Amino acid sequence: MDYQTATLHRIAHKGSRSLIDVHTELQHLAIITYQIPANRLIDRIPRSFKLWTFMEDGIEYGLISAVTFKITNFSFYKISKYPKLNFFQTDFRTYIVNEASHAIWFFGTTLGSNAYLIPKYLWKMPCQYGHYDFHSPIENGEYHMRFRSKQGRGLVQIKDTNREIHIHKGFTSLEQQAHILTHAVTGYYPISQDIIGSYEIWHPRMKATIGIGQELYFEFFEKLKLLSKTEMNHPHSILMTPKIKFRVLLPPNKTEF
Does 106 reside within a domain? Predict the structure, then answer.
């Protein structure tokens, strides 16, 4: 697969779905990724999808990520520039292949706003309200965040090294890594035993740098029996960017499987 061409195609096609498409800017974005044995994940995604995996020392691995960020200037821009909402969010996801296209499977999302009620009850997304405590001393590039929700508690203490990203385990090129980790444009989530939801996003090329973890904990991953507390402090990679424009194409679609 020509990952560079595929990524450029995704960037060039912004897409549009309805009047309630969303425009926002994400700030303090961190993609905190873990390498785990594929057998922990295989039963967590529908059989119609293929888990993206790689081999290392005779063991098959998949990747999961906790993606944290602050949503700013959130608006249904085709209707009005206002109101503009601001809140924190954390997505819990893994990486899948659907008909040769790389995509994301969402386990759940924590939103720091009562706006979570819209995706949770209108579109049956696995969203929960979360209370966030965030602190970022700009002078040293650190990022401290705590949150709690019905999905679990979270602790993120990381630091941006400002170093350019390199090829991490499992990937064969920077282009493949960028396409899978940072430029998947379709996300799927469970609605019921035989129905899944999906929605699309768009953003420009992500200029990411390498972050290092000082202390990390995601109770949701522990509840799902995907990671132990010890494993959470040994991420596969942390990719960070201070801000990036985002579009979310709404409403989601529903598909039987």
Answer: yes
Phi-psi group of 54: left, alpha or beta (phi > 0 → left; psi -120 to 50 → alpha; rest → beta): beta
- 128: tokens are 């929960």
| Distance, CA of 209 to CA of 155 (rounded, Å) | 21
Instruction: Average pLDDT across each block of 10 residues of the chain; the chain has 257 residues. List them in order.
Output: 94 90 94 98 93 97 98 90 88 95 97 95 96 80 92 96 95 97 95 93 95 97 97 98 94 87
Q: Are strands 127-135 and 101-111 parallel, antiparallel or unpaired?
A: parallel
Placement of tokens 């961190």 in the chain: 30
Return all residues near 137 (Cβ < 8 A) that are at least 6 apart.
none
Find the helix packing angle between 174-181 and 3-12, rounded to 10°. Answer: 40
Asked if residue 59 belongs to a domain, the reply is yes
CATH code, 125: 2.40.400.10
Q: Are 159 and 142 in contact (CB under 8 A)?
A: yes
Q: Structurally, how many domains does the chain consist of?
A: 1
Instruction: Report yes or no on 116 lying in a domain.
Output: yes
Residue 4: enclosing H or E segment and its boundaries?
helix 3-12
Q: Are 241 and 29 in contact (CB under 8 A)?
A: yes
Half-sphere exposure of 221 (CA within 13 A, CB side): 31
Dihedrals phi, psi of 139, to nearest 5 degrees: -65, -25
φ, ψ at 123 (rounded to 5°): -115, 5
pTM of the entire structure? 0.96
Say how many CA atoms lie within 13 Å of 134 toward its Cβ: 17
